[in-house]
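Deliverable D2.4 — example input (structure tokens):
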């Protein structure tokens, strides 16, 4: 009987913890707001999965991973400029990587989707999932690695 009480209490704590995580994310009001149907009509299937469902594209599949042209990387959903090409580098991870974003255009959030805490990067204009931030970037600049899904970006050449 004690075993069932413990499982019940653990289940209640887990449910409340999950609700708390979701409530923090839903409190933010974004400038660009669309329905799921509007996003689905605007985005490709992969873009919708990544940007709106917080999915991840397969490593080494985005042409933007090896793009070395000068320009701006913008949110594929709302076109907000997110990253400058001079802050892009090859991390070897298989995803476009940057050591910093354009100030105030991204939002950092915490996610536990794979069982441990990670820093999620979202567009500050529409709330779309872009990727994750890690502390293993170039030590001679910021030390950060913004590991971004190529499907979340559109490139605007200079």
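Example output (designed residues):
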């Amino acid at each position: 009987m004690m075993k069932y009480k413990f499982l019940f209490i653990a289940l209640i704590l887990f449910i409340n913890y999950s609700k708390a995580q979701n409530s923090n994310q839903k409190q933010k009001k974004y400038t660009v707001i669309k329905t799921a149907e509007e996003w689905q009509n605007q985005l490709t299937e992969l873009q919708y999965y990544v940007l709106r469902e917080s999915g991840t594209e397969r490593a080494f599949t985005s042409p933007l991973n090896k793009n070395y042209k000068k320009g701006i990387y913008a949110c594929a959903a709302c076109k907000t400029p997110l990253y400058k090409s001079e802050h892009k580098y090859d991390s070897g991870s298989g995803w476009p990587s940057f050591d910093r974003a354009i100030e105030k255009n991204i939002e950092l959030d915490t996610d536990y989707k794979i069982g441990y805490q990670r820093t999620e990067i979202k567009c500050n204009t529409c709330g779309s999932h872009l990727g994750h931030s890690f502390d293993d970037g170039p030590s001679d600049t910021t030390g950060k690695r913004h590991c971004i899904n190529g499907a979340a970006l559109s490139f605007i050449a200079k």
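The domain at 62-158 is CATH 2.170.150.20 (Metal Binding Protein, Guanine Nucleotide Exchange Factor; Chain A).
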